[in-house]
Amino acid sequence: MISLCFIYFKALNIKQSKMDESKCNASDVFCHGQLLDTIQQSGIYPDSKTFVDMHMLMNPETVLKDFDELMKQGQPTVEAIRSFVQDHFDGPGGELEVWIPEDWSENPELLQRIKDPSINQFARSLNDLWKILGRKVLPMNHPERYSLIPVPYPFIIPGDRFREFYYWDTYWIIGGLLAVDMTQTARGMLYNLLHTVDRYGFVPNGGRIYYMNRSQPPLLIPMIDLYFERTRNIDFIQQNIYGMEKEYNFWIENRTIKVKGPSGTEHAMAIYRVQSTEPRPEGYVADLDAIQDLSG
């Protein structure tokens, strides 16, 4: 039995180093490089996630070429940067549409069993959120222009600035879906995570290309266990056992180290190991500020 402990390592030496190009299919635009650095440090958006959740109106090569021309004129003003973004990008969230789950019920069995009026009302307000937080990926004719990782099934988002699926959040979301008998939606979200395993070899931190060098606690198998305990759908297990094994092996081979305890006993420990020394694209300014504070 392998005990998994999770440690978050903060990069203290932030400098320019590129992500794996094959995983950043929007080229140098959303994951690294001078364009990202210039726009994020310009301050035109209070939240660094705003820009990296946009999509390009033209191919990345054209965007980068036009940016190079802009930089040849000298350090651009804030207004020049704002104008460049408006000409080359569309606002965040446009690749998704609101989706109401087909298996949503106004009065699921769980709510019928809650007798306390105030608690029942609270539970119903939570149940209504499924209709608000459901999303579906729109057809993407030019996926190379987006930071979104497309998935085949609709899903529930955490909300607020988090417009995409997240690994860790999905565990809790699926628990809630199963509690109100929304097994179809839960199954679709599991298929989405298995889709990312099939495509990338693991489940990333979230549904954006800038999350491809990170993960969250490996909860795919516990999620599937929750689903099986509720549905007893053995066919689902049989059909997806290799995907489960593939993600398990990713953690064993890429995120696990050996450590010795006080008694000398050796343990396997899974860690968060980020393959980048750059600021997080969606937290760019905050990371730079943190490093500035640490460096004095």
Automatic annotation (TrEMBL):
It holds the Pfam family Trehalase. SUPFAM superfamilies: Six-hairpin glycosidases. It is an enzyme of class 3 (hydrolase). Coiled coil: none annotated. This is Trehalase. GO terms for biological process: trehalose catabolic process. It catalyses: alpha,alpha-trehalose + H2O = alpha-D-glucose + beta-D-glucose. The keyword Hydrolase applies. It comes from Paralvinella palmiformis. Its EC number is 3.2.1.28. Belongs to the glycosyl hydrolase 37 family.
